[in-house]
Design brief:
- The protein is mainly α and 196 residues long.
- It has one domain.
């Protein structure tokens, strides 16, 4: 029973951190005009990228940061910068750095990290592994990824139910929230580094 409650707690925590519903309007916007098969492929890529990182940090934890000579605050700052750029793109409806086609083809990677699996998710995985060991976080990650994949897989349907105008507005508003979250991540990372 304790294991089940642990799995449920870890799953709920990870699902909230991943927040795939936040990604729906952004993912739908980035894959607009693509075939259902391509959208489903990008949904799989997003979950695969996020899952790979989460499993990697579940197994190796702090070792990866130590090998690369990195710290969680520096990772926060880097992830924050990427999220800020993504937020600006979504809020203003512009493309930065690459052609529209390239951005669309990379939708799965961008959604996978840093949007789904950013510093918050990685830190959460590391903390859960310290509290519960390996198995419970592993099961929770798997369940959270399955739920996330289902939501992204049906993002086109969700967008259709909400309507393009509502989804577009949501995308722009969430873009501003993303930028604000990014500023918090960057600020937190800088303050932590300054205190180290």
């Amino acid at each position: 029973m304790d294991d089940i409650s642990g799995i449920l707690y870890a799953f709920a925590t990870l699902f909230i951190i991943l927040d795939p519903l936040l990604s729906v309007p952004i993912f739908a916007g980035m894959t607009r005009g693509q075939s259902p098969a391509e959208i489903h492929k990008q949904a799989f890529i997003a979950v695969a990228v996020a899952g790979s990182l989460m499993y990697l940090f579940l197994v190796f934890n702090q070792v990866i940061f130590d090998i690369l000579g990195l710290s969680i605050p520096s990772f926060q700052i880097a992830g924050g910068v990427l999220l800020f750029l993504l937020g600006i793109q979504e809020a203003l409806g512009i493309e930065l750095g690459h052609s529209k086609g390239h951005a669309k083809s990379a939708a799965g990677v961008v959604i996978g990290t840093p949007l789904l699996c950013g510093p918050g998710a990685i830190t959460t995985v590391m903390l859960l592994s310290k509290d519960y060991g390996f198995l419970i976080p592993f099961i929770a990650i798997t369940l959270a990824l399955i739920a996330t994949w289902v939501i992204l897989y049906y993002s086109e349907l969700i967008q259709r139910i909400l309507g393009e105008v509502v989804t577009d507005i949501m995308g722009k508003v969430l873009g501003m929230f993303l930028a604000a979250i990014a500023v918090n991540l960057i600020t937190s990372g800088i303050l932590t580094l300054a205190g180290m």
